[in-house]
Amino acid sequence: MGEFPAERTVIVTGAVSPRGIGRATVHYLAEQGWNIGVIDLDDAASKELARELSDKYPIKAAGAGANVGDEASVRAAVDQLEATLPQIVALANVAGVSSPVPYLDLDAAEWDRVLNINLNGVHYATRRVAESMVKNGIGRIVNISSVSAQRGGGTFSKTPYSVAKAGVIGLTRSVARELGPFNVTVNAISPGPIDTDIMGGTLTDERKDEMVKDLVVNRVGTTRDIAAAIAFLISEDTGYITGQTLNVDGGLYMH
């Protein structure tokens, strides 16, 4: 049974965007006592967010700039964070980009951009952090997929996004299988419509009303809904849950 150390760190990628899931997540987890490592494209903004967190909560935080789609860059950022923070126990792969381009207008560059950030980026961060988790004999990894992977789009983003997010589910299951013997769990969260800029900007009340028609609950999701699910899946008590995709989608997609 792998036990959590007294002092534990979670690394969150894509945490800087003011209205994004990542930023809501680092605040939610810092409030729970997690030390925070921030990885985002903007190094200065990552460090600024870390300062904000350590000023507001009684935790340690550090930031490092990296392009998640560049493996060397991700490895260097994790190395940097690991050198200054307590043991890395968890990773939340939140960084992602949207892509509303219709399939018949899609070019190779856009396909590669979306797959690289939304799928390769999850692999690069996971691969590096897994080394430390396996060495320590404990870890929790959570990846963000999307309901569009399961439904084949039908959201703001189209085909390359759906493909990448479906790939994240396959990656999650396969890595869960390989890392299970080392007390490392790997799970995915599949958000439904969440009011963030990845939906193409702030959702108007009209767009929200339109989306709610497809849901079982009577509201569109918030970033806090996803942050709470991440907090659950990286907690010490969820060591028997792995290889799963948790739909946090207001009942949009029911198996």
Automatic annotation (TrEMBL):
TM regions (residue ranges): none
Gene3D superfamilies associated with the record: NAD(P)-binding Rossmann-like Domain
GO terms of molecular function: oxidoreductase activity, acting on the CH-OH group of donors, NAD or NADP as acceptor
Record bears the keyword Chaperone: no
SUPFAM superfamilies, alphabetized: NAD(P)-binding Rossmann-fold domains
Keyword Oxidoreductase: yes
Source taxon at top rank: Bacteria
Keyword set, alphabetical order: Oxidoreductase
Family classification: Belongs to the short-chain dehydrogenases/reductases (SDR) family.
PANTHER family membership: 3-OXOACYL-[ACYL-CARRIER-PROTEIN] REDUCTASE, SHORT-CHAIN DEHYDROGENASES/REDUCTASES FAMILY MEMBER
Protein's name in the database: SDR family oxidoreductase
Native source organism of the sequence: Arthrobacter terrae
